[in-house]
Amino acid sequence: MTLQLKQSTGPEFSRILGLGAARGTNVVTNDDVAGPIDSSDEWIQQRTGIITRRRSDADVTVIDLAEEAALKAIAAAGITAQEIDAVILSTVTYFHQTPAGAALVADRIGATPAAAFDISAACAGYSYGIGQADALVRSGTARNVLVIGAEKMSDFIDPTDRSISFLLGDGAGAAVVGPSDTPGIGPTIWGSDGSKAQTIRQTHSWQELRTQPELGWPTLRQEGQTVFKWAAFQMPVVAQQALDAAGVTADDIQVFVPHQANMRIIDQFIKQLKLPDTVVVGRDIADTGNTSAASIPLATDRLLAEGQAKSGDLSLQIGFGAGLVYAAQVVVLP
Ligand SMILES: CC(C)(COP(=O)(O)OP(=O)(O)OC[C@H]1O[C@@H](n2cnc3c(N)ncnc32)[C@H](O)[C@@H]1OP(=O)(O)O)[C@@H](O)C(=O)NCCC(=O)NCCS
């Protein structure tokens, strides 16, 4: 008789069981950042919708932010840290090449020996993580998965950079994904376009920093107009694909939470997806800034906390950014 390998199988459906958020505690105004880039409060508000951004103190690490959001998400999910089988940390601002930040977070919150790994998918990191968590749960590889998007963007800003630094904030958002009796996470539509890798980038590599220390600490830059066009005109197509794949239309959803990159991009999404006025839209960027992988869970958590969205609502979420990479899915809010 031939030996038949066993494969794991899991529950039919998964969903987000709880969310948690942590924002930088310092409010940084447009006037605070405008001087070195010859900008103004008026220009920044008009072109980006940002009024303030939230940043952390120098001694707060991205792991601290991740831990705070994770503990809140676990409490909201009504489970214990011991019940988490995998921790996924999406971040591009953790200082260590190895070990993964996720393992530290797992240890700090008491989730050991959960599997732990980091995802580098920039502003799409949270949506990448939710797609992974959904697959891990439904395959039976993990029962409960903790997904964290955490960034301390202020560690990679150049106050004299006009292209991206003034947009950025610090924060973390987390979700616990677990088994469900009903469908709670629609198919993830995701992808990449590495031919545009240079459009959002670190100024120079760690290797260049080692051989040319005069270059100084690397920071971020972007080709704003190129990224804007890609985000505003190609990403709505991806968002529509996520709706189609989930078997719903723009009229069926209650909430829309795109990555918080620019208020004008958010408005383009609304127009192109023909979202009805009844859909509540995440606009957390106005006072939190762009927090990369943290922006979607931060904006979603806020809508729930403020009562603008409620448990059971259908929410379309889409992350997009450096890579270039993107991921979108429709989720049922916890
Ligand atoms: C960065 C961004 C806000 C710049 O806005 P923009 O409207 O594209 O600005 P432009 O580059 O077209 O420049 C327009 C004018 O503003 C000026 N300008 C550019 N940046 C400026 C700044 N930070 N402050 C003041 N003026 C600025 C330019 O010099 C230009 O002036 P000119 O008309 O006299 O030549 C915008 O391109 C953007 O949000 N891009 C996408 C960001 C994104 O989605 N990222 C996703 C991944 S995180």
Automatic annotation (TrEMBL):
The active site is at C123, H259, N290. Coiled coil: none annotated. It catalyses: malonyl-[ACP] + acetyl-CoA + H(+) = 3-oxobutanoyl-[ACP] + CO2 + CoA. Pathway: Lipid metabolism; fatty acid biosynthesis. Pfam families: ACP_syn_III, ACP_syn_III_C. Residues 243-331 form the Beta-ketoacyl-[acyl-carrier-protein] synthase III C-terminal domain. Its EC number is 2.3.1.180. It is found in: Cytoplasm. One of its GO terms (cellular component) is cytoplasm. HAMAP family: FabH. Belongs to the thiolase-like superfamily. FabH family. Catalyzes the condensation reaction of fatty acid synthesis by the addition to an acyl acceptor of two carbons from malonyl-ACP. Catalyzes the first condensation reaction which initiates fatty acid synthesis and may therefore play a role in governing the total rate of fatty acid production. Possesses both acetoacetyl-ACP synthase and acetyl transacylase activities. Its substrate specificity determines the biosynthesis of branched-chain and/or straight-chain of fatty acids. The last Arg residue of the ACP-binding site is essential for the weak association between ACP/AcpP and FabH. This is Beta-ketoacyl-[acyl-carrier-protein] synthase III. It comes from Sanguibacter keddieii (strain ATCC 51767 / DSM 10542 / NCFB 3025 / ST-74).
